[in-house]
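User: Structure tokens for this complex, please. No commentary.
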Amino acid sequence: MSARPRVSVVVFPGSNCDTDAAHAVEAAIGASAKLVWHGDHDLGDPDLVVLPGGFSYGDYLRSGALARFSPVMDEVRAFAASGGAVLGICNGFQVLCEAGLLPGALLRNAGLRFVCRDVHVRVETIRTPFTAELTKGDVLRMPIAHGEGNYELEVPELEDLLDHEQVVFRYVRPDGTRGEGANPNGSRDDIAGVCNRARNVVGLMPHPERAAEELLGSADGAKLFRSFAASLLVAR
Amino acid sequence: MTAAPANLTPELVSQHGITPEELDRILSVLGREPNLVELGIFSALWSEHCSYKSSKVFLKELPTKGPRVLQGPGENAGAVDIGDGLAVVFKMESHNHPSFIEPYQGAATGVGGILRDVFTMGARPVALLDPLFFGSPSAPRMHGLVDGVVRGISGYGNCMGIPTVGGSTFFHPAYDRNILVNVMAVGVARHDGIFRAKASGPGNPVLYVGSKTGRDGIHGASMASDVFDDEKAQRRPTVQVGDPFVEKLVMEAVLEVLKGDAVVAIQDMGAAGLTSSSFEMCARGDVGMRLDLSKVPTREPGMTPYELMLSESQERMLIVAHAGREEEVAAVFRRWGVDAAVIGEVIPEPRMVLLFGGETVADLPVAPLVDDAPVYRRPLLFPKPVPPGEAGIDLAGAPDEGTALERLLSSPNLGSPRWIWEQYDSSVQTNTVIGPGSDAAVLRVKGTTRGLALTADVNPRFVAADPERGAAHAVAEAALNLACTGARPLAVTDCLNFGNPERPEILGQLAAAVKGISLACRALETPVISGNVSLYNETDGVSILPTPTIGMVGLLEDVASAVPSFFARENDVVAVLGETRDELGASEYLATVLGREEGPCPQVDVLAFRSTVDLLVELAADGLLASAHDVSAGGLAVALAEKTQGPLRLGADVNLDTALLPTVLLFSESAPRVVVTFRPGLEKAFLEVARRHSVAVNFVGRVVRGPLTVRVNGRLAVEIAPDEVARLRESAHGVLTEVSA
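Assistant:
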């Protein structure tokens, strides 16, 4: 019998999806989840680190701009550098970009407003721990809830990202095609989530933890966590 | 007393909103003249906003008790048992005047204030609902007001991580210059974790926690107790500025500290800030406090005791801790980066003694200010309900039914507010089973199989036509909305928004509305456990429509069986529960399609509502319902059209036979009525249950993949595709949906 995956969820002041993420990994893969205070230096030997959604430090400067200076981020950097799996959701994605662990930046939504609704995203690569058990082209339904999800990066960086198959999710229509009505925030190339070159750090704007149980209208988000759990078994 | 008495000029007294009679009362309470600090304190505590002096005599009528009620009115919020040792804690409040002056901050701080009321009870907030009442979309400033209010709610609630799952939006010219922003917050607590705001234990330390005190919002309570004019609209400094990030930290720290046993009592510093929190906590415990105002953390130098007592700076709380535990409490706040300071202690004498720089700056008895505030029995004129005309409603010039339906669907009050609620985070906390846009929102309660159903609404046009009946309708309709999801209604919070109570006809509206609420709450066994009164909603002599907003919470035993509003499955049977009468009076049809506001409020038979609620709860529990949607504004035709707006965008073939005029049948707002669907073959079982509850059932058609068609006495009256319904509803708010410059 395999051990339960150990998941550490970082709590920044202003995080508000920390307990949601912990609940979802417990429900989806029976993980043992632990909340790690941003001021701590000990991640607690996890298999996965989640940077959750929310408004770290109120996001008054720029989303995620202050959180990257939190003491715990040194540990997250070291953990990622050693190949540990890191998932940044929404504000967590913004923190990862600000911290330089992922390329690009998240700007204000093209519509200038906060948007909360279900979106469809397409799996663009299965070469990450969170998509390894999925099929390229799979369409997942999950909610978004953000005011700054407009992913942007310079053209050379974008080409680099595409060359290395680092786009993990794109916003699509329910039938899986790109085009009008799919992209909720104006993000470059309909990008909803990306990974780093080493493919162990993934960030996305949609909330898989809010779509991890059928009762809530979609269990598609649980597939990311199950994929991670499966990849962990392979690695072990 | 060392502070000099105030020079009590008539101007000074009147600037404080104190009448000459009230001044006499103050002089007799004190046996001397008050100083300026004391005058300010009297002014705040005796304001309408804090003392309910005009409404108190009526509010006593409301039923507030029930077997599940754990806490009724009088605390920060009410609490009701939901089983498993858990309680739902909720309250609704208004932030009307501030939102008209500065919509973003006004609405944002409205959210902040009501959330504090809930989490000071020891409950973690799980939901917000926002009933909003705006003027005509084309009225001056309205675009900016709507945009600002929605962004304010969104900015505060989203950052706090509390999902906004419901509410309502109503547009009417009566709100052109006095919009209403009501906010309801709902939390969940353990029974044994419910905290109250009753100070006790002489010698116990009094802690101030939260944001530093600034000069913002001084006299907000008095502002909320006065009529409005252009000059007052310039009173921007009296609107507070909110910081949801700080409130999030304060909330986490409060919930953490309340898990222990170091705290005796806690209260939010809401309207009238430090004044109301300290006095009210003492009044409940029949004790006093000695507070040193020089110890209050301040944001700017040179603040006077007067300003410190009356500031409405946001995100602050007052805590009484057990003696010797103050450091433990303060340490939790400091870990969350929140200020905490011991500013005084509880004393046995029921007096408030305020020190500043070593001097006594106020020394007041507690009870006369809180419990013995003036109570007014102002002259009142009971409203005469609009009577039914002898010939009924004149339908000359009425368009065909299909055209009328299109106009209704694209009108502001029936159009889709999706663009509003998409700005609110409705799915954070991962409890949202049914989100905004349905009859009621449904949240699961983690760790149980139960769910909470939530709604907040009122039809002000009905209340204007007949305050008693209209208010009863608001309660009964809320219960029906909850029951449509399968939930059993539990209890009510109300937000009574009215005009100037010094006008006898306005006070009559209030009195009649309270009567209607009482009547319906008794019949439905849904006690009122908390609430708020907002008076003086009048600008330049124009009063709002009487708006007693009703928030209601219901309980689902099995949240997985929650019933959706929309057509759910092809070929399901469509049935209408209840009877349609010739009741186009005060209807949305009449106002929108024929441009007339007249006629009586429809009948409200609260026992018929009760039966329909009972029927729906039973049908849902037995798994007989595939969908249920209440028929309200816009009547049966609009209800059917709305039912097509589910994720599957299904239509229906509906055949109605009637002795009424087709227009009356399709657009009358008779209640209670519900459009339900269920699996074919269940008709007999369905009829049997309905008969037991004495509710009329008409099987009227089938759900189809295709358009909604409605035939009346065999003639095709309506044919509309679900996508067209969506297009019309999405177009209803025009320029309002765009970001305001």
